[in-house]
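>> received
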Amino acid sequence: DDPNPFISVHEQAELEAKALAEEVRW
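>> returned
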């Protein structure tokens, strides 16, 4: 039960961006 789904979506986007950045770094 997420009271604020926007936050989870934002967090997921941040995690994806982080993963992309790590991929570029390697």
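>> The mean pLDDT is 83.
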